[in-house]
Write a structure and sequence with these properties.
Length: 498
């Protein structure tokens, strides 16, 4: 039964109980199923307590039913959901569990062998999704909108990744803005192929779909062949992805026989919207995709800390090379270094304000203070505005790399590489790459007498870093290029890989 005090997401679900919420590798599930399983999960998590009061629950499951039901269960128990990345090695998983100070680690059985020892060693309660989704349901707490809902780890220009805390109110504002702008309805059917430890997959696809009473079809991972097969079958209305995914889909279309190409293109034409974001969409990708699919990709701009801020319009001109205009409820301005609004047509930093903006970096008050100026969040991205449309020019920091849509800190990788026995000093850069946006490259000075090849470095790095953080190119140099102050000059390092 609906209670006025329930989270709006839950209230919305009660309107659509008979409709299909999730189609996943495990099967098809209605909103009634989702309400039931998430209530059971919440009860198990509560274990007799009245309210988990924003305790962190770190959870891991392959994209699918267990993931969704567990996430809703965490919210309904009053806890904060900390999604762990299925692609991360144990060292990174352990870091997040420790940094978030997770009270509970909730894992799909597939991840039990890796997560149970980490949880036990850290003294955290360990639960399996397969157990908690089954149980009965107790009475659930009233969860205030100001409560932290989601903590996503993001790389920055300093040190290790930070937890970005988004409240229920933030999440609702982010979702409501996109539902309005992109006109989501209960008749939508979205295909989800993105990882579920980032905003793009969690908010833009999964939560917008479930907020709207729509159906979210979840593939266990991105696979270009599987995506095309699904598009060919029809009945999808929405697809969202990063530019690298569109590049991969184009490659598969190009290699297909003409009869199949026709079916693939026809499948696209039956859809109503295809969106690109998380990294700059090359204009040639937009043009080629339009030829193949008949869709002008809707490019939008966002960030973990703010959800989406700018978007090309659903109806109206989608301008290639631009990320559009401010979304409903989001205030955006462009400022110079001194915090003055720039002249029209001049470049400056994008700043964002409004209910979509996150609450804090978890237990890092100084970092939180530093990224706000007069209540505006400083994105670190530089843009110009032309006829009201924003064009992203780059980032203030060279140490932030975007590869395959993932944000990666050069400094974090350098810190790990410096622990390699052969490496004396190193510099990591992102080098332009047609498929990945940027490719991670490392220049290293070696210790006396040491040797190092890329195919030796990569397996070693894999032990410590997620696969998208692994250097793809290596240059051994006698001396890294430095300025008179002895500081490594990153543009010079990039040139080594040009
Ligand atoms: C993988 N490979 C790479 C990279 N990643 N090579 C170069 N650079 C990389 N970054 C290589 C692997 O080593 C492997 O090569 C081969 O590619 C396949 O690896 P796999 O891990 O299976 O890759 P994949 O699954 O095909 O991944 C590509 C991907 C993925 C699907 C594009 O990167 C992805 O899901 N990206 C989306 C990330 C995302 O959602 N970001 C949103 C965050 P070999 O076989 O030779 O070993 S940003 C956000 O949320 C904000 C709010 C926003 O605006 O959206
Ligand atoms: P993340 O911190 O992982 O959420 O990534 C956010 C960053 O991705 C932004 O600060 C931008 O640098 C970049 N980004 C997101 N969307 C776009 C886009 N459409 N064009 C260019 N950069 C983008």
């Amino acid at each position: 039964m609906s209670q006025p005090s329930e989270l709006p997401l839950i209230r919305h679900a009660r309107v659509h109980t008979g409709r299909t919420a999730v189609v996943a590798p495990e099967g098809a599930f209605t909103y009634a199923n989702l309400l039931g399983a998430s209530a059971a999960a919440a009860s198990s998590l509560l274990a007799g307590a009245h309210d988990l009061r924003e305790a962190r629950v770190a959870f891991i499951a392959p994209p699918g039913w267990h993931y969704v039901a567990a996430q809703w269960g965490i919210w309904r128990a009053g806890a904060m959901a900390v999604p762990l990345a299925v692609s991360h090695p144990p060292a990174e998983l352990e870091y997040v569990i420790q940094d978030a100070d997770a009270a509970v680690v909730l894992a799909h059985p597939e991840f039990a062998a890796v997560l149970r020892p980490i949880a036990e060693q850290a003294g955290r309660r360990f639960l399996l999704t397969s157990d908690v989704l089954q149980g009965g349901s107790a009475s659930l707490p009233t969860v205030n909108q100001t409560r932290g809902a989601l903590m996503i780890y993001t790389s920055g220009t300093t040190g290790k990744p930070k937890g970005v805390v988004t409240t229920h109110a933030n999440l609702q504002a982010q979702v409501a803005s996109l539902v309005e702008a992109w006109e989501w309805t209960a008749d939508d059917r979205a295909l989800l192929v993105l990882p579920l430890h980032h905003v793009h997959g969690i908010v833009n696809v999964l939560t917008c779909a479930l907020w709207s009473g729509a159906t979210c079809e979840i593939l266990p991972r991105f696979d270009a062949e599987a995506v095309w097969s699904r598009i060919e079958q029809g009945r999808l209305t929405l697809f969202m992805a990063v530019p690298t995914i569109y590049a991969r889909l184009i490659a598969v279309w190009d290699a297909a026989p003409p009869e199949r190409q026709q079916r693939m293109s026809a499948g696209c034409r039956r859809m109503r919207l295809m969106v690109s974001g998380s990294a700059a969409l090359p204009v040639q990708t937009l043009v080629r995709w339009r030829e193949i699919s008949g869709h002008t990709l809707l490019e939008r701009y966002g960030m973990t800390e703010i959800g989406m801020a700018l978007s090309n319009p659903l109806r109206g001109e989608r301008r290639p090379g631009f990320v559009g205009v401010p979304l409903p409820g989001v205030q955006v301005r462009v400022e110079d270094e001194e915090g003055r609004e720039v002249q029209a047509g001049a470049a400056g930093e994008i700043e964002v304000r409004g209910p979509t903006v996150f609450r804090e970096y978890w237990r890092r008050p100084d970092d939180t203070r530093e990224v706000f100026r007069d209540g505006w969040f400083r994105t670190g991205d530089v843009a110009v505005v032309e006829d009201g449309y924003y064009r992203i020019l780059g980032r203030r920091s060279v140490d932030i790399i975007k590869t395959g849509g993932y944000k990666v800190s050069a400094l974090e990788i350098e810190e790990v590489l410096r622990t390699h026995p052969a490496i004396a000093e190193c510099a990591v850069v992102g080098v332009d790459d047609a498929e990945w946006g940027e490719r991670i490259c490392a220049a290293v000075e070696l210790r006396d007498g040491a040797g190092l090849k890329l195919d030796e470095l990569q397996p070693w790095a894999r032990e410590h870093l997620a696969s998208y953080k692994i250097p793809r190119d290596l240059q051994v140099v006698a001396d890294l290029p430095r300025n008179a102050m002895g500081k490594v000059m990153k543009p010079e390092v990039s040139r080594l890989f040009a």
